[in-house]
Amino acid sequence: MSTILDGKLVAQAVQAEVARAVAALRARGVVPGLATVLVGDDPASRVYIGSKERACAQVGIRSLGERLPADTRTADLVARVRELGARSDVHGILVQLPLPAGIDADAVIEAIAPGKDVDGLTAISQGRLLAGRPGLRPCTPLGIMRLLRETGRDLAGARAVVLGRSLLVGKPVALLLLEQHATVTMCHSRTRDLAATVGDADVVVAAVGHPELVRGDWIKEGAIVIDVGINRLPGGGLVGDVEFASARARAAWITPVPGGVGPMTVAMLLANTAAAAAAATREAA
Ligand code: NAD
Fold it and tell me: Is the dihedral of CA 178, 166, 186, 223 positive or negative?
């Protein structure tokens, strides 16, 4: 039976660290500010952005909520994001995804000033990650790496299998694992014999968005299982991408859904915002 990697607890610890960093900045007259941009009124996006804004308030980060109608034109949104980028009281810019159909999301993301890209999604941030240079990293992958650190396991030489190759999760987490010297295999929708590949893994990161795709009996005894998936069941309730109960019986460590990776994503957004504010303050000095 495995130990639960409790994302809520670890997120609380990260938030306490961020609150201390924010207090130090405020003592020097800098109030870290995060602009949260929501276009349209998708209910799930409203819930996500609301929880990010509440988390900001808890650690002393000022959030500036930008609400724009669903029929906003790409050019206007790009201009708004550039204006936020020019403001000295805005240290981070978060554009809630997905954007409504008809808006060119790539153009909007690329309008985010690299030093304020607290979601780590611009091509510059992703390129810096690939090159191993300092920069802002995407929040969910950062949260996953922090959870892995909690296990105390050395990742050097460990076999890590990442399911999913999105820019948001799969690709960046694979690069972060590589940075920690894991031997990384990436699986995706065309991968053959997923069961055998997963069965060889010391660390499994599942970020697919398919309920219980990873069967518990695929998991190697003693593996670490990080379940990123959030899947809503038709009858209500959430499940991850991994069959939790049977995987738990074999793994050494496993994240629950909900309460695993989800809270970490928000915590790392706060950490990135505080880091961006600290970097901007150093540059201005
Ligand atoms: P995405 O839809 O962009 O990518 C899904 C990936 O899964 C693709 O790369 C695809 O190739 C791969 N895939 C599809 N079928 C597969 C299969 N049978 N085997 C292996 N790989 C397969 O998804 P995303 O944005 O990376 O999100 C993935 C999941 O993680 C979703 O459930 C999403 O809700 C969740 N998510 C959670 C958080 C969090 O904070 N907990 C953050 C981001 C995403």
Answer: positive
Place of tokens 């929501």: 38
Bridge partners, 94 (sequence order): 36
Of 96, 116, 220, 227, catalytic: 96
Catalytic (active site) residue 119:
yes
- Decide: pTM greater than 0.90: yes
Report residues whose beta carbon is within 6 angstroms of any ligand 1 atom. Answer: 140, 163-166, 168-170, 187-189, 191, 194, 207-210, 213, 228-231, 261-262, 265
Query: Residue 220 catalytic?
Result: no
What number of other Cβ atoms are within 10 A of residue 96's Cβ? 19
User: Which residues partner with 161 through β-bridges?
Assistant: 185, 204
Q: Which domain holds residue 228?
A: 139-262
CA of 237 to the centre of ligand 1 (A): 18
Judge contact between 208 and 241, C-beta under 8 A. yes
**What are the phi and psi torsion angles at 184 (to 5°)?**
-105, 130
pLDDT digits (tens, 9 = 90+) for 189-203: 999 999 999 999 999
217 is catalytic: no
pLDDT of res. 285 = 78
Is 222 among the domain residues? yes
What is the number of helices (H) and of strands (E) in the chain? 10, 11
Residue 231 half-sphere exposure, CB side, CA atoms within 13 Å? 19
The CATH number linked to 84 is 3.40.50.10860
- Residue 65 within any structural domain of the chain: yes
